[in-house]
């Protein structure tokens, strides 16, 4: 009975089902006009973000049950799966070879500059400085440098005749990198990604207490997590139609759509990161922001390579000069900022400024 009672509160699932059947029933009418496209796009985008909040909730419950770094690992993998699903669906609809590249670039900008920067500002205002394990940031950033260089920089200097073979080589390499790094994260060097506070508060200022891990139903939250991701994928297939039409109507670059995909996939992480910053859990924020960026590269790249190869579509992962400069600045500032084991408001402000520049450059 308790399960049924809990399930009856899964409002985002019911909203997603209602939105899907409602929008698909009126789809032909809505796509026929600009206003209809905007309505369909807005409704689906809001419902997908709502479903993403459900993903964040269930991932948080699993995080409480299994502890770190398993919790953030579950959250980042969930977000990346959402991202891969949406990218694949939109690539099939738009046949744009750079959509995956632009989405990966946007996701890294969102995760490191917007998410981590905003969390550092919020935490800095409330606590001044927030400690974390510097070994985690060093590990993530070194992996990010290697992964971005291999997947998105090296292709600039290769002959076109060898690109296809190099991409398949990357599939194997990235899968091995992810398996190796995950094993290090959850087994041999698990302590790199943990930070023990001197005192852990059981309840927050509003009286909301952390659930007892032993009382959390892992199966319930796991199933609902998977269902929420599936619903996001189903809704995204319909969203791709309205988004494509809206981009063409207003003459907007497809890179804006790529940012939309990144926002949807990063929504659960952003919600969780802000909550963690308010609770003085900067280690969780670092694990989410840098871990999500790394997972985006190591999982999305092989996935889109295999999907495009199977579908017979073109794929271009080589970053533009502007994207290269922005990624280089982001990683350089991150290396300088995250080398002392503490974050503050100034460091967060620098990353937010980089994100503002990223948004401005989208329209140039």
Concise overview:
It comes from Sulfurovum xiamenensis. The chain has helices at 2-7, 11-25, 27-30, 34-66, 70-94, 99-127, 134-153, 160-188, 218-250, 254-278, 282-311, 321-337, 345-362, and strands at residues 129-131, 342-344.
Notes on the structure:
It is built from 13 helices and two strands. Helix content is 78%, strand content 2%. It has helices at 2-7, 11-25, 27-30, 34-66, 70-94, 99-127, 134-153, 160-188, 218-250, 254-278, 282-311, 321-337, 345-362, and strands at residues 129-131, 342-344. A two-stranded antiparallel ribbon has the order 1-2. Residues 198-202 have low confidence and may be disordered. The chain has one domain (2-196, 216-362): A middle domain of Talin 1 (Up-down Bundle). The protein is mainly α.
């Amino acid at each position: 009975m308790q399960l049924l009672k809990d399930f009856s509160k899964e409002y985002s699932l019911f909203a997603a089902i209602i939105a899907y059947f409602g929008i698909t029933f009126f789809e032909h009418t809505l796509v026929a006009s600009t206003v209809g496209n905007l309505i369909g796009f807005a409704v689906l985008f809001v419902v997908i973000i709502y479903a993403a909040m459900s993903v964040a909730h269930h991932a948080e419950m699993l995080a409480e049950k299994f502890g770190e770094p398993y919790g953030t690992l579950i959250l980042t993998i969930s977000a990346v799966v959402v991202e891969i699903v949406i990218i694949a669906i939109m690539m099939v609809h738009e046949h744009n070879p750079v959509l995956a590249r632009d989405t990966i670039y946007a996701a890294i900008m969102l995760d490191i500059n917007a998410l981590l920067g905003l969390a550092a500002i919020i935490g800095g205002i409330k606590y001044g400085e927030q400690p974390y394990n510097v070994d985690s940031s060093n590990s993530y950033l070194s992996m990010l440098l290697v992964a971005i260089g291999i997947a998105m920089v090296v292709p600039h200097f290769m002959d076109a005749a060898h690109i296809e073979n190099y991409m398949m080589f990357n599939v194997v390499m990235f899968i091995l990198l992810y398996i190796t790094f995950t094993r290090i994260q959850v087994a041999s060097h698990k302590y790199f990604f943990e930070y023990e506070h001197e005192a852990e508060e059981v309840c927050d200022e509003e009286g909301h207490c952390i659930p007892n891990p032993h009382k959390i139903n892992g199966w319930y939250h796991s199933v609902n997590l998977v269902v929420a991701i599936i619903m996001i994928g189903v809704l995204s297939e319909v969203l791709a139609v309205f988004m494509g039409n809206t981009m063409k109507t207003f003459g907007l670059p497809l890179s804006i759509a790529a940012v939309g995909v990144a926002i949807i996939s990063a929504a659960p992480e952003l919600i969780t990161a802000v909550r963690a910053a308010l609770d003085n859990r900067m280690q969780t924020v670092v694990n989410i922001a840098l871990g999500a960026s790394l997972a985006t590269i190591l999982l999305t790249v092989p996935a889109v390579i295999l999907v495009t190869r199977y579908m017979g579509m073109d794929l271009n992962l080589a970053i533009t000069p502007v994207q290269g400069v922005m990624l280089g600045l982001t990683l350089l500032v991150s290396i300088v900022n995250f080398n002392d084991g503490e974050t503050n408001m100034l460091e967060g402000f620098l990353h937010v400024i980089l994100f503002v520049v990223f948004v401005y450059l989208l329209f140039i």
